[in-house]
Write a structure and sequence with these properties.
278 residues, 23% strand
Length: 278
């Protein structure tokens, strides 16, 4: 079996986890350019844990051996029963971004991976169990709509998303989830509510101090959640029941003889397992 390596995407507030040992920086060379910052690598109870700053790129996690990836992100809420301070274990996404590269593949080697179920169910179970063990309230399901940013939504947009039944809104988790799937990394998101979006009649009454207070409390809970997850996480990678870790098995469309050698050299970082098959 493959050894499990847990990847965490988030801010600096989770770098100093209880029980984190042998922390070191690691620079990963990449055909997509130099990273904005080195990876931070450590261990919890013998489990390798790799931290990635939010502004970095996920293909370096693949090269660092990450098998399971948890993304922590602040978000706004569309539901009264998801107030600030709530953690939502997202199970679906709506991608409203339009400026970001959403695939490692392209002209010269086309691939289509399934995104019907974008989150690893096994990883969601481990996160839910970690939250329960730590006494952290966590809502098990929710749809996350990702907007381009950096601006927040207009009131009309916010009301539209709310009326469509979405749970939370943010600017970070797409195309992150799509790239993780192409890299065959099992992926899950913990969306941490900081405020109600502008649909809420009391939204304008929220102060910067209120938001900072929630952010601080969320960071503390997130650190406990990740530390517990790592302590209890299986040391051997468990095969994904929906095939996240085998997403490229039947995804390549371009015939081998028509593939661009230059692109293939870059793709080896994320798709070498299938590209090297005879």
């Amino acid at each position: 079996m493959t050894k499990a390596v847990l990847g965490i995407i988030g801010g600096s507030g989770i770098y100093d986890l209880p029980g984190l040992e042998t922390v070191r920086s690691k620079t990963i060379k990449s055909p997509w350019g130099q990273p904005s910052a080195p990876l931070r690598v450590g261990e919890i109870g013998g489990l390798p844990v790799v931290f990635l700053s939010r502004h970095d790129q996920g293909h370096r996690l693949k090269r660092a051996g990450v098998t399971d990836l948890v993304s922590l992100s602040a978000c706004g809420s569309f539901k009264e029963n998801l107030p600030p301070g709530t953690f939502v274990l997202v199970d679906q996404f709506v991608d409203r971004t339009y400026k970001r590269d959403s695939s490692f593949f392209g002209k010269g080697c086309v691939a289509h991976v399934s995104m019907a179920h974008p989150v690893s169910p096994r990883l969601r179970i481990h996160l839910a169990e970690a939250a329960l063990a730590e006494g952290i309230e966590l809502v098990r399901d929710g749809t996350y709509v990702c907007i381009e940013g950096p601006q927040f939504s207009t009131l009309a947009e916010s009301l539209t998303y709310k009326n469509l039944g979405y749970s939370v809104i943010g600017m970070t988790n797409m195309p992150e989830a799509k790239l993780a799937r192409e890299a065959e990394i099992c992926y899950a998101t913990v969306a941490m509510v900081t405020d109600f979006d502008c649909w809420h009649p009391d939204h304008d009454a929220v102060t910067v101090q209120d938001i900072i207070k929630v952010l601080t409390a969320n960071a503390e809970k997130a650190a406990r959640l990740v530390a517990r997850l790592a302590r209890d996480f299986p040391r051997q990678h468990e095969p994904c029941p929906i095939g996240c870790d085998r997403a490229l098995d039947n995804a390549l469309i371009t015939a081998p003889k028509s593939r661009d050698p230059k692109l293939l050299k870059k793709l080896d970082a994320v798709a070498g397992r299938v590209l090297r098959r005879k």
